[in-house]
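Appendix B. Raw example, untouched.
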Amino acid sequence: MIPTLSTWAYNDLTLAFYQLAALYVFLHYQTTTHRHWLILSGLFAGMAMGLKYTSFVTPLAIGIWLLQSSLRREGIKKTILNLLSFSLPALLIAAPWYLKNYYFMGNPVYPFIFHGLFWDDFRAAWYARSETGIGWDGLKLLQLPLLVTLGIEDANPGDGYMGPLFLIFLPFIFIYGQRKYRPTSSSLAAILFFILLQFSFWTLGIIGSHSLWQSRLLLPAFAALSPIIGWIWQDLARFNQPRFSLQRFLNLLITLVLLFNLIQISLKTVALHPLTYLTGLESRDEYLTRRLGARYLAMKKLNEILPAEAVVLFLWEPRSYHCQVTCRPDSILDRMAHDYYKHPNAINTLTPKPLPKPGAARGLPMCY
């Protein structure tokens, strides 16, 4: 997942970094009780909140854990001061982005809850795709750990492969969650709470909408789980028997997983034929044509034949890379359907013949 996302114009890696940094610094506060760690944790949480709305789970998780731990150890007054030390920096860092949303779009959390400019009930329903999720299917919910790690049901399967290592260690995580195995530090419990809250909100999302079934949204949770798995892996030596070493058996499984992962990445890399471009045997234009196909050729043609002041509206194509005139992508693939909704008579007059289905035109931009 990480090598894939690192080559895409997505912000998930940066988002995961800020969320994990906020959690990591908060754990420092848990062990030292120095308030400057809380302020720094709030700053990182605020940076995450400026990237994607789903990041709200991080300040929520830290805030809840801070509230219960401070009340237990320090009383009400210090608890309030601790909460302010964390929340005020987070709000100050995140506020400019929400104020910008409000100023330009009329909604601080555009386009959710309050709608806003260019947004209406039709677009909200189209974007949410409510009632397309798994619903409250008990069997499907029990299968989630398997389905998430395999990435076979992702809305975009290209970035959804977590691999089986997390699944292999899942039983041990439940065992080590018990108090008799838990270390004296509260870090383990705080990290597990962070992971549980992330997974719970993700699960609620996919119950309602298939669009939210994207494993990359759980990247901060899986990254936070990694040090716990590392610690468990190291501690499993206590269960070794003279005739069977659980740790060695897991070492064999981990080696096999990493080997297959290396083979898969190698095969995908070879399929790209990157050396022909890196060695200069293939030009940049030839490489982009080979990799992007009709979409890149369409962008080249637009740049060649259109004047600089041209405006291009895309249909059923959200990507506008390499377009050098003003291109307006069809970000949520609803432009034609939304035009029918708003102007049914005008559209019918202009297009007397049946329009192609969205799937038929996917991958090749259309403009008018």
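End of appendix B.
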